[in-house]
What we know:
single chain, 292 residues, alpha/beta, 6-stranded mixed β-sheet, 12 helices, globular
Amino acid sequence: MEKIKFITDSASDIPEDEARAHGIEVLSIPIAIDGKDYQERVDFTAREFYKLLTDATNIPVTSHIPHTRYADVYRHAAEDGYRKIINVTINSKGSNMFDAANMGKELFAEEYPELAKNMQITVIDSLCYTYTYGFAVVQAAQMAEQGKSYEEILAFLDDYFSRAETYFSVYNLDFAKKSGRISTAAAFVGEMLGLRPIMSIINGEIKIIEKVRGDKAVVPKLAQIAQKRRRGEDTPFFAIRADVDGVGEELEKMMIKSFGKHSAGVAEAGASITINAGPRLAGCMVMGERRK
């Protein structure tokens, strides 16, 4: 069995117990809130962040993990006997994490050539946010535990990220307006009419694909889109929620009714998506058609 090290960042929203159970190293993303510096997952939980976000005067700002930190993690993995590393990062279209992870790989090779020459490090741009890529990392780690090869796991991840589709909606337009996801005029009209945007995240791009009227229409519409977009009877799916009680569970029940088994549960969205969307959201992940 190959000894493979799995690394990702805290925006993957992998639950702490899952990360520990499968030996996944989750690196904390730096976040500044009203001039004070924090480390995601170290200084607050997702639930605690929702309150910090709601109370903040300005939109919190995330920074990418420094390339020097990645170089240190690669070195420690090599010293621990790992010869193969898979590092999956947050969407490169919204963060410099992917570039920093690759710069760290170069720095590691420069500073520790003897260690690096025996290492195989693959950095993967997930083109996703939240547990959409966290789930893939957990699945990959489980494959390694089952004796799957490095090449088989990389092939799985390539297929997964070419098919994963995330859909979500927000119950309050304030944060989407502040972050520029929705114009001020559109947000004003949306609030006046009670409209809720349905957004997709595919190939790293966030797009508004539909609008529904009223909070109660959000979950049924997401379930409808999931049913329309999902491909494969045995492909996984899951619901996503933040600080709106019950919506994730309601959406999961609707998807289970449509699809049967293979639900991966209800994921809790962290800072990477709620900073721009706000803490009041619901969403889901399904596997669609392969895009490459």
